[in-house]
Amino acid sequence: MSIVKHEVAEHFHSAGQESSSAKLGMWLFLVTEVLLFSGLFVAYAIIKSTNHEMWSAASKQLDVVLGTVNTLVLITSSFTVALAVRAAQTNKNGEKNRQMVGLLFVTILLAATFLVVKYFEYSHKFHVGTLPGSYYHFDGIPFPNAHRFFGVYFLMTGLHGIHVVIGMIVLTWVMLRARKGHFYEGYYTPLELGGLYWHLVDLIWIYLFPLLYLV
Questions:
Q1: What domain range includes position 46?
Q2: Greater confidence, 62 or 197?
Q3: What's the whole-model pTM score?
């Protein structure tokens, strides 16, 4: 498979400047994403500190096994997207185009697996009624404030799920470009930036899993 040489945009002096500008823009965007979730983490800390017993009882209603499976799935997907970036960095004449496409496809497939697992987890909660706004008894003990836990749970995991979907769209676009031979050792910025975004999505879940399921 051949490669398609990238042409530097007219408003940049060099390929290095173009790449540096794109990376700076992505890092600034990732900072805003961190700030977005930071507000939710603050809400988490406040609610948990003022409702410790309720939080402990409500968190036990989550399925730790499914949460663990999803954690392993996302960690693996971070590894595969990193391998895809590495393949681009060492792609000289298009000999690794297929490898990049395959690794990106596996990453997207793992992301879809994460959403399927989350669907079954959500379905169970809708079935048993562990939803925001409901009144709960855990082990015969009433916890009228338990809706706060599930409100935080659905808000944080739902927002993260939206980011997973966005990541899948970005990675699909990158994969299609990789299939056409757009990424090689001299140019792989879109793939690298897509990988950075996906690593953030994974990192956020690595924080959500212990905070919601284990603590």
A1: 15-214
A2: 197
A3: 0.89
What angle, 0 to 180 degrees and rounded to 10, lies between the N-to-C axes of helices 97-128 and 64-89?
160
Q: How confident is the model at residue 1 (pLDDT cuts 50, 70, 90)?
A: low
Total count of domains within the chain: 1
pLDDT category at 139 given cuts 50, 70, 90 is: low
